């Protein structure tokens, strides 16, 4: 295992890390590891294009054409 030292952190970040660690019942060091692991090794988020391409076909394009009623809106 490797070691990682993070210097010059804002006190608010350290305090928030400690609070989050206490909430999860672990040390700040263990919380830091958990945050790094979930952020860097967690499930890959899908891109917008992947989400759109996964959508089912909902009909023909002309099913969604705008029908004009003949009235003019200014």
Shape: elongated
Structure annotation, total helices: 3
Mean pLDDT value: 89
**Helical percentage:** 40-55%
Fold and architecture overview:
The protein is built from 3 helices and no strands. It is mainly α. It has a domain at 11-56. Helix 1 (11-23) crosses helix 2. The longest helix has 14 residues, at 28-41. The chain is elongated and about 70 Å long. The N and C termini lie far apart (69 Å). The relative contact order is 0.07. The model has no long low-confidence stretch (mean pLDDT 89).
Topology summary:
Elements: H1 11-23, H2 28-41, H3 48-53
Helix pairs in contact: 1-2
What distinguishing features does this structure have?
mainly alpha
Brief digest:
The protein has 74 residues and is an all-alpha fold. 45% of the residues lie in helices and 0% in strands. The termini are far apart.
């Amino acid at each position: 295992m490797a070691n990682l030292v993070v210097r010059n952190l804002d006190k608010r970040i350290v305090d928030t890390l400690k609070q989050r660690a206490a909430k999860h019942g672990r040390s700040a060091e263990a919380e830091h590891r958990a945050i790094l692991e979930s952020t860097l090794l967690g499930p890959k988020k899908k891109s917008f294009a992947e989400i759109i391409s996964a959508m089912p076909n909902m009909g023909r394009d002309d099913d969604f054409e705008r029908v004009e009623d003949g009235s003019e809106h200014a």
